[in-house]
């Protein structure tokens, strides 16, 4: 199941995966949605199957990846970070250098192309930190599609800059005031919109979550990260990495970088969840580390829940990781033992945010800072090169960090 | 059990009235007296919602009732206790209406057995559509509970037939694409849609989503075997209390003839 090779290792495109038959990764995944959406999911799955087999679609996706997104992104040898860690071969996969400043655009360009094929001119999306919202608004501007982005009120307050960026790009940002007023409820509201407007609307889910085919489709659009990184590390070091490290909220950058390495059994895959105020405090987003399997947002996966099956509120300093669920393929990789999931706290992530800025001149997104924090703490234990997915840049977080550290309002 | 209610009503020439309420709303102790009042004032079948934190098929009214019920301390176990207390007093069939996660967490098989023990007659799971999970679907089908399944305007005719064959009790036709919530107008083309479904299925067909007035209930009752009213009732309960809710159901019952 995992032995699929990319058609071309220099710039792999999107190829159909075998999970298409079952819509599941082991026992995880599935399509637990209202009946109204079942036809639309069939339509998306069929359009994606046809697009995957269509060289015209592949070429268009690849050329936009190159000319619009700016791929391939560099694999950067972080020497000063390595000195501090005590490891000479720490490499950063620079997804922060993509257009719009994060990996999210890889998926939104792919799905917007798919929406065009399906004749859907209205796009909806959910966003937490705002990176996926900005990436969706960008793709919609590029293709002249209507765009509505659902965002929790709490995140709107944390990420004012990204709200304005989406508006500049022509999107409508709809505040979500229900429930936790963060990513979970923005996702609920986007699903409600989709149920209502399914005939003319495509829902661009921002992570490897939701009902089939979204987890495998988003993974495939993001898998370019890992295919590039694998080739780059082989070229530079002449060997595979000992570890591949990425932060995990829903888990799209992690699935994107893990995918190419899954068949390489000697490569440790490490996902870093948001430990928030510490998992013992209950204020965290570590669904894999301390959650249990359940059904949320259309798929079966690990999630944070109470003993009565009510979804528990998540917490993270990073809006993009503040989500009580996780993509079903991560649940599968955890249970099968192929990947390991750990967590770091808000304070450790904040420290890493500063350290990477000072050591390398790279301000990371708070989400990506979780992966850096893991490397700061445990990097020296890897017996060989370590590739870290630097999923996004931290410009969006500067005002929030300044406020958190008592420097007042910058914006 | 549930289908026999429809059979009896069909001989009377009227549609079944099926009110929905969220357990634990408006108050944690209101569920049993509310169900009794609804049964006494004209409900033919009752839908009892087990509240869930993320009710993504529901609009604002039922969302708020679910959040309120959870804040009131309502739990799956408490819903089943309330149901058995109701069952000791009235025979009106009850369909439990909820999302998958609270049931999976409770233990799926254990829940089915406990629901039967408590006196439930049917189960409706909004996020377990046909083909989504054969193990869970088979377990419900094998239980004594009627498996109430949904058909939407986006369900093609062939799938509607398959859904109906996999269900029992009645088939729930969702009147519009969208979430639950009272609407000022019935969707245009509803009559033709309901006719399309009734022509190809054997189960009684009840229509829900958006029906909010006696006049609308009367019009839907003329074309369907059952009329489901949820948000309009929940809103009345929220704003005016149990007695007003029961009076509202009586007005709907009168409109069905």
Strand order of the largest sheet of chain A: 3-4-14-9-10-13
Radius of gyration of chain A: 19 Å
Count of DSSP H/I helices of chain A: 16
SS-based structural class of chain B?
Answer: alpha/beta
Oligomer type: heterodimer
Instruction: Estimate percent helicity of chain A.
Output: 40-55%
Element order, helices and strands of chain A? EEHHEHEHEHEHHEHEHHEHEHEEHEHHEH
Beginning-to-end CA distance, first to last residue of chain B = 23 Å
SSE inventory with pairings:
The complex is a heterodimer of chains A (411) and B (257).
Chain A lengths: L23 E2 L2 E2 L8 H15 L2 H15 L5 E3 L1 H7 L4 E5 L9 H15 L3 E6 L3 H13 L2 E7 H6 L1 H9 L3 E5 L6 H15 L3 E3 L10 H9 L1 H14 L5 E5 L4 H7 L9 E9 L10 H4 L1 E5 L2 E5 L24 H9 L2 E7 H15 L5 H13 L7 E5 L7 H7 L7
Parallel strand pairs in A: 4-14, 5-6, 5-8, 6-7, 9-10, 9-14, 10-13
Antiparallel strand pairs in A: 1-2, 3-4, 11-12
Chain B lengths: L1 H11 L3 E7 L8 H10 L5 E4 L10 H12 L4 H12 L6 E5 L1 H7 L1 H11 L3 E4 L8 H9 L3 E2 L1 E3 L5 H9 L5 E4 L15 H11 L4 E4 L5 H8 L4 E4 L1 H10 L1 H14 L2
Parallel strand pairs in B: 1-2, 1-9, 2-3, 3-4, 4-5, 6-7, 7-8, 8-9
Helix pairs in contact in B: 2-4, 2-12, 4-6, 10-12, 11-12
Structure description:
- The complex is a heterodimer of chains A (411) and B (257).
- Chain A contains 16 helices and 14 strands.
- Residues 1-17 of chain A have low confidence and may be disordered.
- Helices cover 42% and strands 17% of the residues of chain A.
- In chain A, a hairpin with a 2-residue loop joins strand 1 (24-25) and strand 2 (28-29).
- The longest helix of chain A is centred in the N-terminal third of the chain and has 15 residues, at 38-52.
- Chain A is globular and about 55 Å long.
- Chain A has helices at 38-52, 55-69, 79-85, 104-118, 131-143, 153-158, 160-168, 183-197, 214-222, 224-237, 252-258, 287-290, 328-336, 346-360, 366-378, 398-404, and strands at 24-25, 28-29, 75-77, 90-94, 122-127, 146-152, 172-176, 201-203, 243-247, 268-276, 292-296, 299-303, 339-345, 386-390.
- In chain A, the strands form four sheets. In chain A, strands 3-4-14-9-10-13 form a six-stranded mixed sheet, with helices on both faces. In chain A, strands 7-6-5-8 form a four-stranded parallel sheet, with helices on both faces.
- With 411 residues, chain A is α/β, with parallel strands linked by helices.
- Chain B is α/β, with parallel strands linked by helices and 257 residues long.
- Chain B has a single domain, classed as TIM Barrel (Alpha-Beta Barrel).
- Helix content of chain B is 48%, strand content 14%.
- Chain B has a nine-stranded parallel sheet with strand order 5-4-3-2-1-9-8-7-6.
- In chain B, helix 8 links the parallel strand 6 (149-151) and strand 7 (171-174).
- Chain B is globular, with a radius of gyration of 17 Å.
- The A-B interface holds A 30-40, 178-179, 184-185, 188, 191-192, 195-199, 294-298, 305, 307-311 and B 52-57, 59-60, 63, 67, 70, 75-77, 99-106, 126-133, 149-156, 159, 163, 174, 177-179.
């Amino acid at each position: 199941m995992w032995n699929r090779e990319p058609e071309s290792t220099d710039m792999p495109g999107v190829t159909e995966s075998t999970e298409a038959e079952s819509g599941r990764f082991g026992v995880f995944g599935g399509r637990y949605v209202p009946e109204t959406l079942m036809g639309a999911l069939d339509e998306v799955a069929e359009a994606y199957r046809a697009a995957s087999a269509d060289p015209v679609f592949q070429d268009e996706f690849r050329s936009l990846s190159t000319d619009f997104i700016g791929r391939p992104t560099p694999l950067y040898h972080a020497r000063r970070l390595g000195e501090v860690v005590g490891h000479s071969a720490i490499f950063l996969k620079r997804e922060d250098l993509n257009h719009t400043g994060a990996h999210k655009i890889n998926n939104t360009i792919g799905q917007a192309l798919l929406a065009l094929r399906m004749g859907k001119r209205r796009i909806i999306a959910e966003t937490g930190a705002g990176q996926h919202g900005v990436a969706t608004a960008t793709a919609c501007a590029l293709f002249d599609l209507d765009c509505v982005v659902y965002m929790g009120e709490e995140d709107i307050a944390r990420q004012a800059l990204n709200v304005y960026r989406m508006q500049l790009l022509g999107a409508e940002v709809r505040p979500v005031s229900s429930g936790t007023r963060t990513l979970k409820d923005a996702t609920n509201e986007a699903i409600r919109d989709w149920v209502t407007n399914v005939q003319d609307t495509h829902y661009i889910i921002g992570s490897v979550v939701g009902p089939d085919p979204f987890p495998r489709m988003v993974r495939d659009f993001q898998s370019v990260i890992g295919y590039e990184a694998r080739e780059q590390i082989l070229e530079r070091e002449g060997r595979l990495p000992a570890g591949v490290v990425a932060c995990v909220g829903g888990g799209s950058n992690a699935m994107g970088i893990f995918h190419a390495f899954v068949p390489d059994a000697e490569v440790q895959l490490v996902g870093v969840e948001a430990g928030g105020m510490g998992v013992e405090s209950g204020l965290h987003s570590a669904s894999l580390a301390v959650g249990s399997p359940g059904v949320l947002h259309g798929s079966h996966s690990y999630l944070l829940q109470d003993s009565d099956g009510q979804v528990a509120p998540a917490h993270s300093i990073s809006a993009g990781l503040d989500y009580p669920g996780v993509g079903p393929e991560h649940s599968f990789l955890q249970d099968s033992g192929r990947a390991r999931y750990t967590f770091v706290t808000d304070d450790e992530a904040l420290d890493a945010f500063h350290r990477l800025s000072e050591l390398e001149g790279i301000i990371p997104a708070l989400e990506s800072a979780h992966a850096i924090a893991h490397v700061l703490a445990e990097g020296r234990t890897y017996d060989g090169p370590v590739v870290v997915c630097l999923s996004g840049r931290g410009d969006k977080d500067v005002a929030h960090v300044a406020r958190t550290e008592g420097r007042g309002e910058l914006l | 059990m549930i289908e026999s209610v429809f059979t009896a009503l069909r001989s009377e020439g009227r549609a079944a009235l099926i009110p929905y309420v969220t357990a634990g709303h408006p108050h944690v102790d209101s569920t049993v007296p509310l169900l009794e009042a609804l049964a006494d004032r004209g409900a033919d079948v009752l839908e009892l919602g087990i509240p869930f934190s993320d009710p993504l098929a529901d609009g604002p009214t039922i969302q708020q009732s679910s959040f309120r019920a959870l804040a009131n301390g309502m739990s799956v176990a408490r819903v089943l206790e309330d149901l058995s207390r109701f069952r000791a007093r009235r025979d009106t069939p009850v369909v439990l209406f909820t999302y998958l996660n609270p049931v999976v967490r409770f233990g799926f098989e254990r829940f089915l057995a406990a629901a039967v023990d408590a006196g439930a007659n049917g189960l409706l799971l909004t996020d377990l559509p046909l083909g989504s999970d054969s193990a869970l679907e088979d377990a419900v089908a094998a239980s004594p509970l009627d498996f109430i399944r949904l058909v939407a305007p986006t369900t093609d005719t062939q799938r509607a037939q398959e859904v109906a064959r996999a269900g029992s009790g009645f088939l729930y036709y969702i009147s519009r694409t969208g979430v639950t919530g009272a609407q000022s107008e019935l969707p245009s083309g509803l009559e033709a849609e309901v006719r399309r479904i009734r022509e190809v299925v054997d189960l009684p067909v009840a229509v829900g989503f958006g029906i909010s007035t006696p006049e609308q209930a009367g019009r839907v009752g003329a074309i369907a075997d059952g009329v489901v009213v949820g948000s309009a009732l929940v809103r009345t309960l929220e704003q005016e209390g149990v007695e007003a809710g029961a009076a509202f159901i009586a007005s709907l019952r009168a409109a069905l003839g």
